[in-house]
Amino acid sequence: MMGQSKKKDSIRAFFESRFVNLILVVLLVLSVVKVFREAMVRYEINKEIGTLENQLNDLESKSDKIGNMIAYLKTDQYIEKEARAKLNLVKPGEKQINFVSSTASSVQTELAKSSPNYIKWFNYFFK
Question: 20 to 30 Å CA-CA from 103: which of 5, 29, 62, 90?
Answer without folding.
Answer: 90
